[in-house]
Specification:
Blueprint lengths: L1 E7 L7 H10 L4 E5 L10 H6 L4 E5 L7 E5 L3 E6 L10 E7 L6 E8 L13 H20 L5 E6 L12 H4 L7 H13 L3 E2 H5 L9 E2 L6 H4 L2 E2 L2 E5 L1 H6 E6 L15 E5 L2
Parallel strand pairs: 1-2, 7-8
Antiparallel strand pairs: 1-14, 2-4, 3-4, 5-6, 6-7, 8-12, 9-12, 10-11, 13-14
The structure holds one DNA strand.
Length: 268
DNA sequence: ATGGTCGCTTGGCGA
């Protein structure tokens, strides 16, 4: 088995203990982390190496955003991408030497802008930025074309399917579930023939959430969640994908992130 | 329509 995970930790330093628990309980081979909220000079490299993840690539900034890939197996040729002319630490990718028949994978880790509150790009620059970010990324992937051995994971901040939100009717005008966002995400998915590994392995009608607001009194009982975190794969990896887990238990740990990790396993 | 809670940083923004 080879496994890959994505987790928006909402501050890596605040979530170090939780990451250690995750490393103990699930131990994915490679983990994509978003919202690390730490500058590179303060990245907790030694602590994460001690969890079994000595291979690390990251790009961070003060207080906001930040993405990292940490791995049990070697990472090569890391690159940081900037979209919409902003160096805001939302996209990093690297080669992952799996040491299996899967070979060296290209793993992309994304933190798509959340987009603010008002679902109108003319009135809300944050929403315009979100759509432009996805459009630029789509053009880049279309130019690169479809390929093998690829993973694109992260907090995409869009829940595309009706079963990706607690109420399709109540949220269809709410950012993360608007039609225009879903159209943008669909275009991104088509740009390089990405396959949503989680929905490949689960029925499209099964409610699946990866995020629950901090503001709910009892997040699990109320269960007003959304599936914002995704792990997409190229067709060859889709054929090898064997299991998808949303690790809800992490949402109940002490000092939880508001996002749960998503893990996909591949037969090797 | 509003507020509810976090994290970073110490006032207020972003989510």
């Amino acid at each position: 088995m080879f496994s890959a995970a994505t987790w928006n930790v909402n501050s890596l330093r605040r979530r170090l203990e939780a990451l250690a628990w995750f490393a103990d309980e699930i131990a994915p081979d490679v983990i994509c982390l978003q919202e690390t909220k730490v500058i590179d000079g303060l990245f907790p490299a030694a602590a994460i190496a001690a969890m079994g993840y000595p291979h690390q690539v990251f790009t961070g900034m003060k207080a906001y955003n930040g993405v990292a890939i940490v791995s049990k197996v070697p990472l090569i040729n890391p690159e940081v991408k900037s979209w919409c002319d902003r160096d805001d630490a939302r996209h990093i990718f690297a080669g992952v030497e799996t040491g299996t028949r899967l070979g060296c994978l290209e793993v992309h880790n994304l933190y798509v802008p959340a987009g603010g509150q008002i679902a109108d790009p003319l009135k809300n620059p944050k929403f315009a930025h979100k759509l432009a970010f996805i459009t630029e990324l789509t053009h880049w992937w279309a130019a690169r074309g479809a390929g093998a051995g690829r993973i694109m994971a992260g907090d995409f901040n869009i829940a595309p399917l009706a079963a990706d939100v607690w109420s399709h009717e109540r949220l269809r005008r709410t950012i993360t579930h608007t039609e225009i966002e879903i159209i943008h995400l669909d275009a991104l998915q088509r740009s390089a023939r990405w396959i949503d590994a989680v929905r490949l392995l689960r029925p499209e009608t099964e409610p699946l959430f990866t995020w629950w607001s901090y503001r709910a009194d009892d997040w699990e009982a109320v269960n007003k969640g959304r599936r914002l975190d995704h792990l997409w794969v190229s067709e060859d990896l889709a054929r090898a994908a064997s299991e998808a887990i949303i690790f809800k238990a992490a949402r109940d740990w002490q000092l939880p992130s508001d996002h749960a990790p998503v893990i996909v396993s591949f037969s090797v």
